[in-house]
Known about the structure:
Elements: H1 24-31, E1 50-51, E2 57-61, H2 66-71, H3 78-90, E3 98-101, E4 108-111, E5 117-120, H4 125-142, E6 146-150, H5 152-159, H6 165-168, E7 173-174, E8 183-187, H7 190-195, H8 199-219
Helix pairs in contact: 3-8
Amino acid sequence: MxxxxxxxxxAYDATPFLPDEGGLAAYRRAAxxxxxxxxxxxxxxxxxxxxxxxARVVLVxxxxxxxxxxxGEPFVGPAGRLLDKALEEAGxxxxxxxxxxxxxxxxxxxxxxxxxxxxxxxxxLRELSACKPWLRAELELVRPEVVVALGATAGKALxxxxxxxxxxxxxxxxxxxxxxxxxxxxxxxxxxILRADDREAAYAGLVTDLRVVARALNGHRRA
Length: 223
C-alpha cells in the first residue's frame, strides 16, 4: 500500500507517493502516479531510473528531455548517445550501470514560432527538493560505490546548494549523509557539450572525469 493512500502530498513533496516497501520495480510503479510537484501536469509521463539494480555506479542527470519524456526512459536522446560514447571511451559499461535524473518529469516551455517545439527549462529548487525522495530511495536500493553527478542540478541534489561544477568536477568526493563508503564524482551534463562552442574539448573533459570513476571502481572491487 502506498503512503499516498492515507495522505496526499503538499504542493512540492513526493514523499507521500513513495511505497512503504519493495524494490526498484515497486518504486517505479509508484513514481508513475507521483503528484509531488506541478511538473506532472504537462509532462507525458514519469521517467524513473533504469539499469542494474546492483550497479556499482549510478549516473544522475538533471531531468528527462523531450525524447526521454516521450519514451519513458532516461538518457535516450542525443545527450544519452553522447554519454554512451563517453562511458565506453572511459572504460565504463553502461549496461552494468544505473541511470536516473534528479527530477523525474520533463519541465519545458513551448515555442510556437519554432513549430511548437518543447524547450527544456531548468527545474526550480522547490521542484528539485520535492523530487529528492525518489533519488534518495534509488541510491539506498542500488547502493552504488560511485555516483556520477552530471551537471549542476544533479550536483546540488547530491552535494548541496554550494556545489559548483567548475570548482568540484573530476574529484572523488565523499557522499554526504551516508555511513557507507560511497563517493560522488561531478562532471558536466552531456547536453552542455552539445551546446558548447568547442565540443571536442568539452567532450574530452567529460571523458577525463569519467576515467576518475573507472579508476575508483577498479580500485574498490565488491566482494
